[in-house]
Design the sequence.
C-alpha cells in the first residue's frame, strides 16, 4: 500500500462538507465572503443561479408564515383503507394513504407501498372473500377520541 504524501509543515487544512482547502500561514488572507465562497462551493451550484445578491422576501417570521401557508394549501389529504368484517361486526385499518391534488394516491400497508390513479382504486386489493369488505375513510382530526383525564394524570 502506497503512503500518502501530505504536506506536514507550514500547511493548515480547513475542512467543510464539500471541500478541503489548503492554506499557508504566509498566504494573503482572503476576505470573509471570498473565504466562504471558496470553502462552500458545491458541484451542483453550476445548475442553480446564485441568490447571494438577491434581497430576502421578508424577515424570518414572515417567511416562516409564508411557508406554513404554502404547506397548508398544498398538503395531501390523509385517508385509511379499513377492512370491515361482516355487517359492522368488526373492523381494522389495513392501509394508510395520501391523496394529492392531481388525483393520484400513494398507500402503505405493512411493508407494501403502492401508487394509484385514485384513492378508490386501493379498495379492490383489500376486499377478502365475501365476509371482508374494504372502505375508504378520510381522516377527520375532529373525530379523534379525546384523551382520558386519568391518562393525562399518569
Sequence:
Amino acid at each position: 500500500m502506497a503512503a500518502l504524501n501530505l504536506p506536514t509543515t507550514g500547511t493548515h487544512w480547513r475542512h467543510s462538507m464539500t471541500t478541503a482547502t489548503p492554506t499557508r500561514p504566509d498566504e494573503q488572507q482572503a476576505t470573509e465572503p471570498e473565504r466562504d465562497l471558496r470553502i462552500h462551493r458545491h458541484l451542483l451550484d453550476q445548475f442553480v443561479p446564485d441568490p447571494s445578491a438577491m434581497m430576502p422576501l421578508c424577515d424570518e417570521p414572515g417567511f416562516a408564515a409564508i411557508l406554513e401557508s404554502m404547506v397548508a394549501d398544498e398538503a395531501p389529504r390523509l385517508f385509511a383503507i379499513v377492512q370491515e368484517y361482516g355487517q359492522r361486526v368488526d373492523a381494522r385499518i389495513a392501509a394508510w394513504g395520501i391523496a394529492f391534488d392531481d388525483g393520484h394516491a400513494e398507500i402503505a400497508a405493512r411493508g407494501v407501498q403502492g401508487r394509484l390513479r385514485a384513492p378508490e382504486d386501493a379498495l379492490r386489493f383489500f376486499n377478502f372473500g365475501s365476509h371482508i369488505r374494504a372502505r375508504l375513510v378520510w381522516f377527520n382530526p375532529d373525530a379523534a377520541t379525546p384523551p382520558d383525564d386519568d391518562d393525562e394524570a399518569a
Notes: The first helix runs from residue 32 to 40. The beta strands are 12-15, 20-23, 77-85, 90-99, 105-109, 112-116, 132-138. The radius of gyration is 28 Å.
